[in-house]
Specification:
CATH architecture of the largest domain in chain A: 3-Layer(aba) Sandwich
Family (chains A, B): Belongs to the RecR family.
Keywords (chains A, B): DNA damage, DNA recombination, DNA repair, Metal-binding, Zinc, Zinc-finger
Oligomer: homodimer
Structural class of chain A: alpha/beta
CATH topology of the largest domain in chain A: Dna Topoisomerase Vi A Subunit, Chain: A, domain 2
Largest interface: A-B, 53 and 53 residues
Organism (chains A, B): Parasphingopyxis lamellibrachiae
Distance between the termini of chain A: 64 Å
GO molecular function (chains A, B): DNA binding; zinc ion binding
Bound molecules: zinc ion
Function (chains A, B): May play a role in DNA repair. It seems to be involved in an RecBC-independent recombinational process of DNA repair. It may act with RecF and RecO.
Shape of chain A: elongated
CATH class of the largest domain in chain A: Alpha Beta
Number of helices of chain A: 7
Chain lengths: ~200, ~200
């Protein structure tokens, strides 16, 4: 009996991770009852982000500018590059403030099962950045999964002819663990003990 | 390091019930990465609801039209009126499809503690509807809390001079339980066994 418009709002919210149909209904009620305090700010924030949303042409991050805020941050060490699978990994590492360099987002990991090949990932742009001589160290920060490690190994081979130090996160990471879910302590330890790829 | 605009979106989402700061961040990432599938539909749905949002001048429901969809539904029995504390209670009862009549939302419950007096609730409009002779039965569907029952008792006294049948939900409801959280079976039983107010 809720109107079509309210049902559409409920459905749009229910598609977000962490919100099911029931919690989406409660969220909608909250939005309707606190229009000025919640609905309007959310609407304005979405409008702004939608209007400015961009994928960074340098690193693959999503942000409200291109190049992104990380790539244009002059306080970061541009000569150190951390390669991650997903934007969520970049955000997790960035939030921890443990890595003072820049990033490169692959947009996935090599997977025979899912048919993901090197050309499906942001690898050419990575090679381009390294070949351009702008980088001294590449930190391979793939997930500690089979596919993540396969990807790291592939990248280390593609990069070995360049005069850069190639490291990867220490395997203090729990096996099968995904970067985005780790606590800061584990991330800090793994970064601190990063080691050259053999 | 996320942009101001992205932070604002995260904060707006984190204010919704069921989403904390961490899940709001994940939801934002999801929105940014699936722009067409999630961000745009949510934005459009919010725009539409914001533009049409109204409080029903008859019953106090929030909807995208005034009068609301419940009040204008000709398949409902206009002579039976269910009085609830909050819009969320109306939605819960409406979702269960157990009550075929119309509703009246008080917008709260009498509370000495919170300083809520009769004139702070939609009681005059309720009396007006009953005095207008449009109603045969008033179902008092307050929460089974002390304040809910105080409110029901107050309403039954205000309504006793009118030629209407006044009933309240049977107290199969768990003590302290709030309507909006009850399963349909409990709601059905309480409605079925509703009894005249002494
Ligand atoms: Zn960037
Ligand atoms: Zn109405």
């Amino acid at each position: 009996m809720a109107s079509v418009e309210i049902d559409q709002l409920t459905n749009a919210l229910a598609r977000l991770p962490g919100l099911g149909p029931r919690s989406a209904r409660r969220a909608v009620l909250h939005l309707l009852k606190k229009r000025e305090g919640t609905l309007v700010p959310l609407l304005r924030a979405l409008e702004t982000v939608d209007a400015k949303l961009a994928t960074c042409s340098i690193c693959g991050n999503v942000d409200t500018s291109d190049p992104c805020g990380v790539c244009t941050d002059v306080k970061r060490d541009a000569r150190s590059l951390c390669v991650v699978e997903e934007v969520s990994d970049l955000w997790a590492l960035d939030r921890s403030r443990l890595f003072p360099g820049r990033f490169h987002v692959l947009g996935g990991r090599l997977s025979a099962l899912d048919g993901v090949r090197p050309e499906d990932l942001g690898i050419d742009t990575l090679i381009g950045r390294v070949a351009g001589g702008e980088v001294d160290e590449v930190v391979l920060a793939m997930n500690a999964t089979l596919e993540g490690q396969t990807t790291a190994h592939y990248l280390s081979e593609r990069l070995e002819s360049f005069p850069v130090r190639i490291t990867q996160l220490a395997h203090g990471l729990p096996v099968g663990g995904e970067l985005d879910y780790l606590d800061e302590g584990t991330l800090a330890q793994a970064l601190r003990a990063r080691r050259p790829v053999a």
